[in-house]
Write a structure and sequence with these properties.
This protein is of the alpha+beta class and 197 residues long. It has one domain: Gcn5-related N-acetyltransferase (GNAT) (Aminopeptidase, 3-Layer(aba) Sandwich). It contains five helices and eight strands. The protein has an eight-stranded mixed β-sheet with strand order 1-2-3-4-5-6-8-7, with helices on both faces. A hairpin with a 4-residue loop joins strand 4 and strand 5. Helix 3 packs antiparallel against helix 5. The radius of gyration is 16 Å and the shape is globular.
C-alpha cells in the first residue's frame, strides 16, 4: 500500500500530483481566501502557517505518514487546492481521505467530486482497501453534506477529538465507505460528474 499511496491521479477536470516545490506558489495563491479554512484546524491563508503546512506535509510524506496532493485544474494546470491520504493502515487495509481544501472559485464545479472519485478508486481498486475514512469538524455542515452525497456512511461524533490552535476543542464527525459499498458510490460519483459535463 505505502509504495503506491502517492501515485499521481488524473481525471478529466482535475489532476492530483504529490506535493512538490513546483506547487508552492500556486497553492499559496489558492489558499489566500480565509473563507476556505473556516472549519479547518489550520488557516493556510496566513503566510507563516502556509509555510509550516507546506514543509510539514512534505516531511510527513517522506516518512510515509501521509500522501499530500496538489489539486490542479486540468484545463489550466493551475493549483486549486489540496487533498491527502492520511493515517494509512496497511495491515487493516484502511486509509483516510482528508486535509481537503479548494479555492472558493472551484467550489461546486465538480473538482471535489472528481478528486474523491479518483482517490476512492485508487484506494479500493489499486491499494486494495476495505475501508476509507473521512472526518470533519462536526459543525461543518458543507463538508458533512459533501460526505453524505458520496454517499459515505455517518459513523458518529468523536467528542473533544482535537485541540484547535486557539485552544478550543473540536468534535469530529466520522464517515466511511467500505469496499462492498464502493460500486454504488462510484456509480453515484460518475453520474454526478456526467450531469456537470
Amino acid at each position: 500500500m505505502l509504495d503506491t499511496l502517492a501515485s499521481p491521479l488524473t481525471g478529466s477536470r482535475v489532476a492530483l500530483e504529490p506535493i512538490a516545490e513546483r506547487h508552492e506558489a500556486g497553492l499559496r495563491a489558492a489558499a489566500s481566501d480565509k473563507r476556505i479554512f473556516a472549519w479547518m484546524p489550520y488557516k493556510l491563508s496566513d503566510p507563516a502557517t502556509f509555510d509550516l503546512w507546506f514543509a510539514g506535509v512534505q516531511e510527513a510524506a517522506a516518512r510515509r505518514e501521509l500522501a499530500a496532493f496538489a489539486t490542479l485544474d486540468r484545463a489550466s494546470g493551475t493549483a486549486i487546492g489540496s487533498t491527502s491520504y492520511l493515517a494509512p493502515r496497511p495491515h487493516d487495509r484502511s486509509v483516510e481521505i482528508g486535509g481537503t481544501w479548494l479555492a472558493a472559485a472551484a467550489w461546486g464545479g465538480g473538482a471535489n467530486v472528481e478528486a474523491k472519485l479518483l482517490m476512492l478508486a485508487h484506494a479500493f481498486d489499486v491499494l486494495g482497501c476495505v475501508r476509507v475514512e473521512l472526518k470533519t469538524d462536526a459543525r461543518n455542515e458543507r463538508s458533512r453534506r459533501a460526505m453524505e452525497a458520496l454517499p459515505a456512511q455517518f459513523e458518529g461524533i468523536h467528542r473533544q477529538h482535537m485541540v484547535l490552535p486557539d485552544g478550543t476543542l473540536r468534535d469530529s464527525a466520522w464517515y466511511s465507505v467500505l469496499d462492498r459499498e464502493w460500486p454504488d458510490v462510484r456509480a453515484n460519483l460518475e453520474r454526478r460528474l456526467a450531469a456537470r459535463a
